[in-house]
Amino acid sequence: MYVAVKGGEQAIGNAHRWLADRRRGEREQAELSVPQVQGQLRLAVDRVMAEASLYDPELAALAFKQASGDLIEAVFLLRAYRTTLPRLAESVPLDTALMRIERRISAAYKDIPGGQVLGPTYDYTHRLLDFMQLADGEVPAPERAEAVRAACPQILELLDAEGLMEREQDDGSEPFDITRDPPDFPVDRATRLQMLARGDEGYLLALGYSTQRGYGRNHPFAGEIRQGYVDVEIVVDECDEPVCIGEIALSECQMINQFGGTREAAPQFTRGYGLAFGHNERKTMAMALMDRALRAEELGEPIIGPAQQAEFVLAHADSVEASGFVSHLKLPHYVDFQSELELLRRLRREHAATQPADNPMPASPEAQSS
Amino acid sequence: MTDARRRQRILALSPGDRVEEAWSRLDIAPHYRCVRGPETGMAMVRGRMGGTGKAFHLGEMTLTRASVALEDGTLGHGWVKGRDHRHAELIALVDACAQHAEWEASLEEGVIAPLAARLAEEHEAQAEVAAATRVDFFTMVRGE
Q: Which of A144, A193, A271 sits opposite B129 (nearest CB)?
């Protein structure tokens, strides 16, 4: 427990002034602008939007600049801003099959309609530092080739004439919304996906990795990964049909996993799904692994790893909540600590009273061993 | 897609300053007033499990909307992602004006068609850049 204290206004004001000075850096250097962040640190901007759960590249870039590059602080800033806005509309569920593709690969099927398109990827780079970037080098424009007029359908739906793949069908059910009602465990898959979508990438990556190392293994394949732009349509009172409000950048990952099946239903590949704002491929892969891992109960699998425990995974996935509770330890706990001191002194007095008079308090075993 | 719905889409996909520039080149200058907004809020974006399945909430995006009334009472509405009030207002204004037969054609010719053509060009250029990163697996087949 912490208590309200007064005082320190001057110190706080000066601390924030110093922070602003640190953020600005050496004045001989040009100040970093928000459009520069938005245009040149795009992956940071995208991660902030995904984890803040608010798509607005300019504001995410501002948050990143304001936070001096601290992604978790930037996510917090944008999430806080989100609470100041009213919700005006809900979108029609995105149709990612209509994505304007920048990247689209499959590690499961080689020949796919629309082809395998690498896009602007760090894959296959040698991970050698490029010292040219210390100098002002000109960057050539990207290469072009004749565009292919093929649609890019969802591979998992398309390339499965045999029925080997679990199908995803819409039953028209209204999804739960964690921003309106607090989730109450156990939660359904729609709720899990909403929580995973805003979950911290590092945390989900670690847990997804744990399933690959055996803590809830389900043998994933990257069935399809795509990045690009999708129209967002909203439902409004003024029009009979949904209206397009623009397009957003998205990343999507369809994982194929090992078999479900029951006495009645033949074994099938099962699926895990990841979707995120912006270019967030690693995040969507981790999300898809976690979506699948958290389906363990539904698919009748033994729950043997932390990654399969929904309440544990989801209750700790949000970096805003996690950093808030960890950071509150910095607030004044003086009264709380005082009471602990009093308690400890009493325990020690009582302990001393039980000791023979000629054998004063011995050092504890821990103190001896350290 | 209805004309109104198509106009809204093209205007929302185009950057605000480009819409302003196209609008300013027309000689339509009706008196109008904003009857709602422009105001910024959010739209909740939904995805589908596996891309085709049940809906879930992905996250929100900023959204600005406006409604205008011309002097004769004709209403127009506009919505656009982001926080650009003027952009939403212009979309609403075009929506209102396009309901007048004498303006509809010049709006189509002077605003919507050029904006649509520009978007198509940009999308084509982006598709060409993507196509250059298409993997050709046939080069891996040996001796066949």
A: A144
CA distance A277 to A297: 28
Task: Collect all residues of chain B within an 8 Å Cβ-Cβ radius of residue A146.
Answer: 128, 131
Give per-residue pLDDT as tens, A315-347: 999 999 999 999 999 988 888 899 999 999 999
- Helix locations, A93-200, DSSP H: 155-158, 189-197
Model confidence at B142, in pLDDT bands (50, 70, 90)?
Answer: low
Could you give the maximum distance between any two Cα atoms of chain A, in Å?
94
Is residue B37 one of the residues assigned to a domain? yes
Query: B-chain residues within 8 Å CB-CB of A194?
Result: 56-59
pLDDT of residue B46: 98
Q: How many CB atoms lie within 10 A of CB A337?
A: 12
Looking at the predicted structure, is the pLDDT value of residue B27 above 90? Answer: no
* Domain span at B72: 3-135
Percent of chain A with pLDDT over 70: 95
In a domain, B73, yes or no: yes
pLDDT of residue A78: 98
Rounded to the nearest angstrom, the minimum Cα separation between B47 and chain A is 5
Task: Verify whether the Cβ–Cβ distance A245 to B63 is below 8 Å.
Answer: yes
Q: Do B60 and A54 touch (CB under 8 A)?
A: yes
Contact status, residue A144 vs residue B131, Cβ threshold 8 Å: yes
Q: Tell me whether residue B142 is in a domain.
A: no
Please answer yes or no on whether A177 and B57 come within 8 Å at the CB atom: yes
Beta bridge partners of A89: B43
Angle, helices B16-24 vs B85-97, to 10°: value is 40
Q: What is the pLDDT of residue A358?
A: 66
What ipTM describes this predicted complex?
A: 0.94
CB contact, 8 Å: A89 with chain B? yes
Crossing angle of helices A71-82 and A42-52, in 10° steps, is: 50
Domain count of the fold of chain B? 1
Please report, for chain A, the start and end positions of each structural domain, with discontinuous segments joined by +: 9-82, 96-121+147-168+176-317
B19 domain-assigned? yes
Residue B6's nearest CA partner among B143, B111, B132, B130 is B111
Question: Which pLDDT value is given to residue A263?
Answer: 80
A365 pLDDT above the threshold of 60: no
Helix (H) or strand (E) holding B44: strand B32-48
For B44, name the nearest residue in chain A, comparing CA atoms only. Answer: A90
> CA A31 from chain center: how many Å?
29
State the nearest Cα–Cα gap between B38 and chain A, in angstroms.
12
Is residue B140's pLDDT more than 60? Answer: no
